[in-house]
Amino acid sequence: MTTVELTRFRVLAEKTEELLAARADMLKDFEADRAGFLRARLVQLPDNEWLDIVDWATPEDFATSREKGPNLPGIARFFAAIDSLVVAEEGVIAR
User: Fold this and answer.
1) Residue 47 region, left (φ>0) first, then alpha (ψ -120 to 50), else beta?
2) Does domain 3-89 sit in CATH 1.20.120.160?
């Protein structure tokens, strides 16, 4: 069952370009290092908030990824551009 990670966060306006520049490398690192990673979509919201929607093959894949944290340079650069976490949630695709 496809698991969806929903992470809403804030980025300071002056770090927006840094966040976007790091995104491609973060995705490459996820593809290389994260079993069960399916895809990710980044949504810009009002007031310097963003929503990252990441699909995982299983809840276990997502849990394992979370344990690894920012273990690779591209992931670390992306995370470093984030100012604060608003909310992180997990769900499944309803069929």
Assistant:
1) left
2) no
